[in-house]
Amino acid sequence: MNGKTIMSLEGRKAVVIGGAGGIGHAIAIGLAEAGAEVAIASRNEEKLKETVEKAREEKGVELKYFTVDVSDEQSIVDLAKKANEVMGTVTILVNSQGLNKKSPTVEMPTETWDAMFSVNVRGMMIACREFARYMIEKNYGKIINITSIRGIRAVMNGKGNTCYSSTKGAVDMLTKSLASEWAENNITVNGIGPIVTMTPMMEAIYAGDESRKANAARNVPMHRLGEPEDCVGPAIFLASAASDFVTGQVLYPDGGMSAIV
Q1: pLDDT tens readout for residues 172-228
Q2: How many CA atoms lie within 13 A of 133 on its CB side?
Q3: How does pLDDT run across 2-12, given as a tens digit for each residue?
């Protein structure tokens, strides 16, 4: 391997589900800047159009987009088919979709629990399955699932995160199991597990409450919360030839949180 080009994604085709906002958007930009042809996908077409325009204006990056409803199996099947028809074989899939509705467990409606597992786990599994069909034909692929440190560390006193954390624990094992199953097809399956990350949604939550934000960062060894860009380097590594012998792993851009008790 050439050290100068080992992280290059020139000629690769990538789809980032959940790429219209937050972590997915930052990763989509990063993959494109590394040379990949990138399409983002989500349910909100207006948001997709805005994201594509923003990428063009602010970063000079061209993105494609497709609509998908990750709670609908047929919608995901259609996405995989259309993306591979339009772009050629997609060999990089990033699953950055996610739903988080906080509630104490004794107050959580079963419908909410089911909805979160439907998007965070079931939808991710279907996306992996459908895109892997094309990767298997190519005998090559890179799948990156966005999980969370909450897949391995519960929140003190729960704080309404029991369902979310449970879905991320499931995503971690889904990632490991698919890595084992598809290793013979030269498909790597890995995860990225950030801590609380200052996406536009989280910026709105912390707006005007710097003390709350500072308190959240106090327990992080590097004394800050995550930024979407913190996930870009790990994503490029996991999408590139640099990680061809890395599979079934979760990388934690977490400022050291996973290293401490």
Answers
A1: 999 999 999 999 999 999 999 998 887 877 777 777 778 878 877 888 888 888 899
A2: 14
A3: 777 899 999 99
Beta-bridged to residue 93, according to DSSP, are: 15, 143
CA distance 145 to 62: 23
Cα 240 to Cα 74: distance, rounded to the nearest angstrom: 29
Question: Which residues have a Cβ under 8 Å from the Cβ of 47 and sit 6 or more positions away?
Answer: 20, 21
Backbone angle region of 159, left / alpha / beta, with phi > 0 → left and psi within -120 to 50 → alpha: left
Asked whether residue 234 carries a pLDDT value surpassing 90, the answer given is yes
Average pLDDT over residues 153-163: 83
Using one digit for the tens of pLDDT, what is the confidence trace for 31-78? 999 999 999 999 999 999 999 999 999 999 999 999 999 999 999 999
Backbone angles phi, psi at 257, to 5 degrees: -60, -40
At residue 26's C-alpha, the angle toward residues 24 and 27, to 5°, is 65
Establish whether 164 is a catalytic residue: yes
Do β-strands 64-67 and 92-95 pair in parallel, antiparallel, or remain unpaired? Answer: unpaired
Q: Which of 134, 164, 206, 252 is catalytic?
A: 164
198-203: Cβ within 8 A, 24+ apart: 198/225, 198/226, 198/227, 198/228, 199/21, 199/22, 199/23, 199/228, 200/21, 200/22, 201/21, 201/22
Given a cut of 90, whether residue 85 has pLDDT beyond it is yes
